[in-house]
Amino acid sequence: MATINSAYRKLASGYLFPEINRRVRSWQERNPDKKVLRLGIGNTTEALPQAICEAMIEKVEELGKRETYTGYGDEQGDGYLRAALVEYYKKGGVSLEMDEVFVSDGAKSDAANIQTLFSIDSVVAVADPAYPVYVDSNVASGRSEGWDENLGMYKDLVYLSCTEENGFIPPLPSQKVDLIYLCNPNNPTGAVMSHEQVKRFIDYARKNKSVIIYDSAYSEYITEEGYPRSIYEIEGAKECAIEISSFSKFSGFTGVRLGWTVVPRSLVCEDSKPRELNRMWNRRQTTFFNGASNIAQKGGYAALSGEGYEQSRVLVAYYLENARLIREGLQRIGLTVYGGINSPYIWAKTPNGIDSWTFFDQLLDQCHVVVTPGGGFGPAGNQFVRVSAYNHRENVEEAMKMIQENLMI
Amino acid sequence: MATINSAYRKLASGYLFPEINRRVRSWQERNPDKKVLRLGIGNTTEALPQAICEAMIEKVEELGKRETYTGYGDEQGDGYLRAALVEYYKKGGVSLEMDEVFVSDGAKSDAANIQTLFSIDSVVAVADPAYPVYVDSNVASGRSEGWDENLGMYKDLVYLSCTEENGFIPPLPSQKVDLIYLCNPNNPTGAVMSHEQVKRFIDYARKNKSVIIYDSAYSEYITEEGYPRSIYEIEGAKECAIEISSFSKFSGFTGVRLGWTVVPRSLVCEDSKPRELNRMWNRRQTTFFNGASNIAQKGGYAALSGEGYEQSRVLVAYYLENARLIREGLQRIGLTVYGGINSPYIWAKTPNGIDSWTFFDQLLDQCHVVVTPGGGFGPAGNQFVRVSAYNHRENVEEAMKMIQENLMI
Predict the structure, then answer these.
(1) Cβ pair B192, B343 in contact under 8 A
(2) Chain B, 29-58: which have a CB under 8 Å from a chain A CB?
């Protein structure tokens, strides 16, 4: 008699983005003649860089010829791409071995699956607000007794509250925790932790033998000095941190799918042997995964150097200019906004303290603009919405115009 | 103090194929001037069909233009591909709804992850021999107390022994089990279960409220009448079976990565509500996965109809002809062989009852031919090797010649 993994029943209502999609579809059905301006999901909109397209077309053509066809690659990623990622880190002053880098089909999968390396009774800390995948993957795996309706939080998880008062920089846990998820630059707040601020977490983790899961998917959006692009720029990180990153937001690979994870050889936790965690992730990936698409990997390689890199930087600059327009556009109507400088996300405070889903509905109804309700990222987001810079410039401009002309606050 | 998922320590030595790779690399280093003939891993070698390449190149070109660029697709797969898969099943007389079909990055990932839907105390039955992913994913998730060195089996798993006597058709479990993994046509034995033989498992599953995980990745290799291409051809399967399949062996997508899983709405187990398992897999995929590569999905769509389908059938026929050459070539030197008619795999009995790893080493040393030791698939494989039809025709011919001329038995 098969029985289900009952931890799934502990999950609260649907994953945030499907829920937003449902609301928008329903609104669109009621308003079929109106144009929806989407600044919700962080979904890239601009053309893939030409050098990347060329590399991928070349790979498809090679697959079409018997002499150059290739089948399975290494589950950990093709050697040339792992080597290129090592070089990419080296430019930032970080030295890694090839077998510490694991190519994947994207940061989301890795961010969700990485928790399987750790015992089920691990105490998990997340920034509040946080990317829902960190939370949901742990709940679905049995690390919570369920949703606490009153607090708007999952039981047994530790929420590190990011507020205006602390500049949206997560405080250290006040209790002992085993795993700590950090995203820097942050999704959704757009805040960035400095070297010093990340260092405090590394010191905490080393002292408590905790492991930091560090999501650097937005590191290419850092425009100002003084912020780490990789956690490994900071001393001691290799002993306590796993880094997860992605080509999605850097080179427009949201649909192409490609990411990577670094599990340093020297990473340890309370009961692990030397190199054990690195080998465990290797075992996990060789058993549960069969490598990223070989076409996507060629594209990723092209993105890391030469023209492909330059063109990707142009793409990032385009979205950052959108972010500036949003930030300034929302400020103009008197909203309090954060982020959007070293990040494609603007974290906007709702007017008059209204709830984030209410403001979501209001922006959709009055301005036809979709944003992401901050409450979907955790209770500290209840009076914020995330506005994404991922859209065509003209749509961003139109959205700002619609908001400026039609929003009733 | 983070601690590891200690279930990983229950896993015996490395996953089968990395182990083979290590042995071959070591041999090649000792014999740098010799050509290795690889009939081990089921890795496709022939050019990807032109219609599929064209479809993928067209998609990359669309990604390279702002007007036609697309980012994130649905995690469950793009609608056009799910619809095409529903049509593909319909041609075989199987009627599915679109929301019962989930596109993924390949059958391996799904086969490994599907067990997360079920409770950790599920009793798992696997055919012996079996694709190692079924076993290893369950062990890594905590369903075994570890490897039993004497039996050459994992404790707590139920092995359904497939032997010459039963024609390599797994017997029904003699005890109650919760999950049953079946692969048909079978990897590694090349045997195929008839409708009637599969029906016995469906009857067992419905009576015991077990769930069958049915891997049909090789269904396009069925050349004879009387064998099901999908488990849903058989009455009652939608109440008790999940089907996992793949474009890898059908259209040469081993490196491109694309597969799918069917979780019927009517699938139930002991404690599930109506549609709950279908919704759970949807939740799993939307939380832990972000969709297959949009380029691969266009390729998969091209593979399902018209020219792409015809060209894929030619590819399958090519490998099946290789299988015939291997089957007959090995028979010629007096080996007892099975499979290779409705399957790209030949299951060859080792001569004089020697162990499969010994025969593996012998074939490598004497004939420079790599096969897969049957023992890697379970104890019932200890006196067999799997010979794969995936190689160029001339290499298959050369391998048969090398074996015929040099094997000392």
Answers:
(1) yes
(2) 41, 43-48, 50, 53, 56-57
